[in-house]
Amino acid sequence: MKNFINISDISKADLRKILDNAKSRKEKRSHLNKNSIDSDAPLDGKILIMLFEKPSTRTRISFDLAVKQLGGKSLILNPDEIHYGSGDESLHDTAKVLSQYADIIMLRTYEHKNVLEFSKNLNIPIINGLTNLSHPCQIMSDIMTFEELKGPIKNKKIAWLGDGNNVVYSLIEAAVQFEFQLSIACPKDYGPDKKILKWAQKNNGNIFITKNPLEISIEAD
After folding, report:
1. Which pLDDT belongs to residue 85?
2. Are 123 and 92 in contact (CB under 8 A)?
3. What is the per-residue pLDDT for 55?
C-alpha cells in the first residue's frame, strides 16, 4: 500500500490491520499525556507535510497530533503561499520538491482529481484528507468508533440520513470492504452518484437506497 486515497483501493486485510493497530495504540495511550510519544515511535525521523486547500479543524488537529504522537514531525502549508502548480512551477515540479523534503503528504482538496494528479508526481506516499468524492479517514474513524461501542461491524446494519456526499461515497466503499449492510435515505435528486453504486453492486455490496428516513432507521445498529 503506497497511498491512502480511497477505501476501495485498500485490501480488506490491510484495512483491518489499520483499525486493529489504531485500537491497540489508543488503548496503550490511555494513561499518557496528549503530547507523549508512543514507546515504539514508529515515525521517528519522518516528516509529514500537510496541504489544505479547504479549511479544517478536526482533520488538521488530528493529523498534526497523530504524527507527533507517533514520533514524527509535521509541517502545514497553505497552497496560496507556495507554488503548488502555479506560476512558472508546474504541479510536477512542486511534487518533486516536496518529495525531497518530506516522507509523506496529506492533501485536503476541493477536487478528487487533484489528489490523483498530485500522487502521480510524488515519489512519496499521499493520504487523502478529503476531496469532493471521498473522505476515507473520516469513515475509518467512524468504523473504529462503532466497533469500540458495538463490536465487529461485519453484517451489521448501518443507516445514513442525508445527501449523497463525499462521506457517503467512502461509506459505500467501506460497506463493501468491511461487509456490512448500508441503507441510505436521501432527498429526491440528492442521492449518491450512480458510478459508486454500480461499483458497489459489482463488488457484492449490500446497499439499499430510499427517500424515507424512517424506513431505514428502525432496525439500524
Report:
1. 66
2. no
3. 85
56 within 8 A of 129, measured Cβ to Cβ: yes
**170-194 pLDDT tens trace:** 999 999 999 999 999 999 999 999 9
Cβ–Cβ under 8 Å, residues 102 and 75: yes
Task: Report pLDDT for 49.
Answer: 96
Cell of 27: 488503548
Span 83-119, pLDDT tens digits: 776 677 777 888 889 999 999 999 999 999 989 998 9
Q: From residue 63, how far is each of 66, 76, 104, 106 by CA, in Å?
A: 5, 10, 12, 9
Domains located in the chain, CATH noted? 7-130 (3.40.50.1370), 152-210 (3.40.50.1370)
Give me the average pLDDT of each 10-residue run along the chain (221 residues).
93 97 95 94 97 90 96 90 73 88 95 92 96 96 97 97 96 98 95 94 96 92 96
- 30-67 core/surface letters (b: 16 or more CB in 10 A; e: else): eeeeeeeeeeeeebeebebbbbbbeebeebbeebbeeb
Candidates 212, 211, 216, 214; CA nearest to 192 is 211
